[in-house]
Amino acid sequence: MVCITPILNRHITSNLTYLSAWAYYNPKPYSCFWFPHQPYNSMARLDPFLTVNSRSPIARLISSSHDADNLYGLLVRLSFNDNEPPSLATRHAISALSYQHLSMERTAIMHRTSAIRALQNAIGYLEPSQIIQTTAASMLLSVAEILNYEASIPSWYIFFCGTKNLLRQATQKGGTCTEDGALIMDWIFYHDAMYMFSVRHWGHKRGHQKKISRWKTMMSKATSASESHVVVPTIGCSLELLNLLCEVVHAILDREDPSYHSQAHLKRIRALEIRLRGLEQCPDGVSGIEPEEKAHRSNIAELFRLATLTYLYRVAKGESRESIDANTIIERAFALLRNVKNCERPWSLFIIALEARTEHHRAIVLEILKESLRMQPVGMIALTKRMIHDAWVQQDLHDEEIDPLTLYGLIISRSRVPPCFA
């Protein structure tokens, strides 16, 4: 049995101001508002933009991937499986995210509350397929909290802790062995890695929030499997590379830590460096992809690897920007940026952009940001642009180079919640 009922109860208790929004709605009209009185094919109720946009903006919110529609389509299907609590939880969670995106906060609160109640009713001895549905609903609520970073109470971690608990049970029961289960699992793993990075550098974390960065990550495939080197469209790189990023985050020590200069720590960093340098990522092998898109995916995956190496050298290892190893990787990253029109992966762009020291390098980043925002006006790109500009201002105000570990903490801590670069 999954033990997240206390977590959900705690969220509702801490969110009484949200629940009071129900008073603004007459119960009778509201009973006609949701799906029991709507045709099952009335998708406008699920995503108000779905009927007017060929590509739903909600898909862009849940994933920055060019294949986000595949994930979103799966979530929609899961929400329509039946009218049992797991389906209702997913359905209401998607709708909450939709109305939040439309700045209809009161309506979003209603659906968020309904999703939480459905989750409470769903938790128990669930079938594997139902666990995946419930896990997806919990993850959607976590995404909504993160994206509501200007106004949200800091409860994103409650939903994400619940998501991880549910995913653990799904793994034990074999619910992630299916293709749909693997897609959901990889989506959560990607967010897990991004949260881990942000929480490491976010200065407002409390004890229970620190636990997230220490939890074991779960992937749909073992790192020893050959498939772990294949680029996963949902995450933009291979599972092996994303797992290596998690290991790099775990390996970062504060500069004053007694173990920072220890042989054991240096050996650990060196081992990660060797693995990252030797890592080869294979195309996903999906047929029907245009050559231009195939090349773009390959470039983005390689940019992710170069960004991870940059992060290792500059933050974990503490090397100077001018060191041979760091400078070589950074210059290769900027050369690669010149060959891509846009970058839908905020994390890679953030890491590389903070190494822009010349006006030429910054011009490259600004052009990529401009095109990326045009392609993806919703999601984390806009926040990433703001954070990059903040970092550049800090760098310009200092005559000497700022330690990247200090700079990351300064910029990321300006957000009320840890920014998710997913």
From TrEMBL:
Transmembrane segments: none
GO CC term, one of those recorded: nucleus
Biological processes, Gene Ontology terms: positive regulation of transcription by RNA polymerase II
UniProt-annotated location(s): Nucleus
Primary location recorded for the protein, binned into one broad class: nucleus
MF terms in GO: DNA-binding transcription factor activity; transcription cis-regulatory region binding
Keywords recorded for this protein, A-Z: Nucleus
Pfam families found in the cross-reference section: Fungal_trans_2 (PF11951)
PANTHER family: TRANSCRIPTION FACTOR DOMAIN-CONTAINING PROTEIN, TRANSCRIPTIONAL ACTIVATOR PROTEIN UGA3
Protein name: Fungal-specific transcription factor domain-containing protein
Species for this entry: Rhizodiscina lignyota
